[in-house]
């Protein structure tokens, strides 16, 4: 049994990312055998992390521990990412900087949304996450804020993205299983 964390990296109030994350979990479950692989949504907004380097309050210390423990519990990840100024959202990068051993010898895939499907943010993340020990899959799913959302806010994904997600899942599950034997 593989456990895949679907990690939502935007904490913005009114974020578009929640609909994308829910779609990803729902479709991933539909396209997979539940006896082989489980998917769980991990919402960064549930973890009140301080900026790395600031002395945490007791509550923030507990949040750092809970974030680490949750992330460590998975064999692989699907990161749901927006694009902010051609890069990853600041809160997401800050949260990732708390982690490293939790990611070692695991796999990650990306579902992005933005003007260009968060393509630049995803390429940015690949470089960051390689340093943290994650192998990133070739296939991504890239939603356009123009054509996959109404008024850039109501998620209406084109059907062809389901095929992209299936290909992404094949790569991610394959690598997650292979890397589990390495760990
Ligand atoms: C400060 C800021 C910078 C942004 N920069 C980009 C960008 O470089 N490329 C892009 O495609 N979208 C950009 N956007 C649009 C966001 O990708 C879009 O608002 C998206 O819905 C954000 O994700 P969220 O709603 O889940 O927080 C930017 C938005 C903000 C607020």
From TrEMBL:
Alphabetically ordered keywords of this record: Oxidoreductase
Oxidoreductase as UniProt keyword: yes
Domain NADPH-dependent FMN reductase-like span(s) in chain numbering: 3-143
GO cellular component: cytosol
EC number(s) per entry: 1.7.-.-
Pfam families: FMN_red
Signal peptide start and end residues: none
Keyword Transferase annotated: no
Entry-linked InterPro entries: Flavoprotein-like_sf, FMN_Rdtase-like_dom, NAD(P)H-dep_reductase
GO terms assigned for molecular function: FMN binding; oxidoreductase activity
This protein's name: Flavin reductase
Source organism (scientific name): Enterococcus italicus (strain DSM 15952 / CCUG 50447 / LMG 22039 / TP 1.5)
């Amino acid at each position: 049994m593989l456990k895949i964390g679907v990690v939502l990296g935007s904490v913005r109030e009114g974020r578009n990312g929640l609909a994308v994350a829910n779609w990803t979990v729902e479709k991933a479950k539909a396209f997979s055998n539940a006896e082989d692989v489980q998917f769980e949504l991990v919402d960064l907004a549930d973890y009140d992390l301080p900026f790395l380097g600031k002395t945490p309050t007791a509550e923030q210390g507990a949040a750092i521990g809970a974030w680490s423990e949750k992330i460590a519990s998975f064999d692989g990840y699907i990161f749901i990412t927006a694009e902010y100024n051609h890069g990853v959202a600041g809160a997401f990068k800050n949260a990732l900087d708390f982690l490293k051993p939790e990611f070692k010898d695991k796999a990650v895939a990306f579902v992005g949304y933005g003007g260009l499907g968060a393509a630049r943010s995803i390429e940015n993340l690949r470089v960051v996450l390689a340093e943290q020990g994650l192998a990133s899959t070739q296939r991504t799913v890239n939603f356009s804020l123009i054509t996959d959302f109404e008024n850039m806010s109501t998620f209406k994904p084109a059907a062809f993205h389901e095929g992209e997600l299936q290909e992404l899942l094949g790569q991610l599950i394959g690598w997650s299983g292979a890397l589990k034997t390495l760990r």
